[in-house]
Every structure is written in C-alpha cells, then in structure tokens.
C-alpha cells in the first residue's frame, strides 16, 4: 500500500492481523497478548500534537472476548476497532453471546461508546444462512464521539465490508505575536537626555505643530 508502513502482528498464535500507518504520521505498534486467543494490536500515534491510542482487535467466533485489559473507567482519544464477533440486540442481533455481553458492560461502566446500533449498515453477509450482521464494531472514548464520521465502504474482496471512521480535529491555530514595549528594560536617563535635546531644538517662535510632532516621535 503506497504511502503506508505495514505493521503485522508477530505473535506466535496470531491469526494474521495487521495495521498500516501513513508515512507522514509518527506511530508505534505493539502486540497485546493479554486476551489471547483474541488478537490485539495496540497502536500509539501522534497527529497534530495529539496522542491517540488505537486498538485493532480480532476475536474468533467461538471465543468469549475478555476485556480485562480495559481496566480503567475513563479513556481519552482512544479507539477500538475490529471484528469482535459479539452478539447483542443493541447492534441488531436477535441474541446475546458472552462477547456481546462483555461489550455492553464496557459501554455501561466506562466512557467508551459503541458507534454501531441496530440501524447501522451491516458489514457481513453470512452466505450459509443468507443473513446480514454487524460483527465489526468501532468504539470511541467519549471525547471523540462528537468529532467523528463513520461509513461502510464497498466490497474490497472480503466477506466483510470495511468501516471507515474519520475523526475531525481542528488544526492548531497560529497567532501572530504582537510587538510590545518592555518598559522595565528602558534606558530612562538616555531617553530624558535625548528628549531634552530634541525638544529644546524646537524654536519657541512660530506655530509649527508638524515639526513638534516629528521630533516627539523621534524621541520615542
């Protein structure tokens, strides 16, 4: 993929997940094996002066995802995304499974918000049962919730359709610094001497306000 650096998972039991980081963005990726056999890649990226934590997750269909690694209640600039294989009526399934219950619990006990709901476009066509479902979820910390846009893209040759999540962060504003006088560093004795010399040079006779103003400006 041109312009991106691949970061494949190198765990012994990894199920070939990986991620790409754009070349102009500084980032680090490491494997997190705490929830095996759930595969987790943890990326830390810096963009426009902000640090983001992104967890890419694949949970096998027969496995019960254990989110014990999410042991905080409040997260900032954090994104979880992947194929969780979690079932819940909250995102359109007719049943629950253990993974779905665990994800529901996360959304109830932390500030992490699941973006998908029962009205979200499905991402998987189960050909054997001819059913549509949403195993692919995107979860954001609440500080990013009102700064995102999400859409399901067209088929790219997989049985899953990709989710594209875009974050809208304001550009850093640069303000022009105004020049200010530092009166504490002024040489007041020299100022007085210069002012006296220039102002006494103005002839007392004649009405010449322009000359007076010009010499006053030279003093300053």
From TrEMBL:
GO terms for MF: carbohydrate binding; catalytic activity
InterPro entries linked to this entry: Endo/exonu/phosph_ase_sf, Endo/exonuclease/phosphatase, RdDP_mobile_element
Gene3D superfamilies: Endonuclease/exonuclease/phosphatase
Keyword vocabulary terms for this entry: Lectin
Residue stretches making up the Endonuclease/exonuclease/phosphatase domain: 53-162
Superkingdom classification of source: Eukaryota
SUPFAM superfamilies: DNase I-like
Protein name: Selectin protein,pol protein
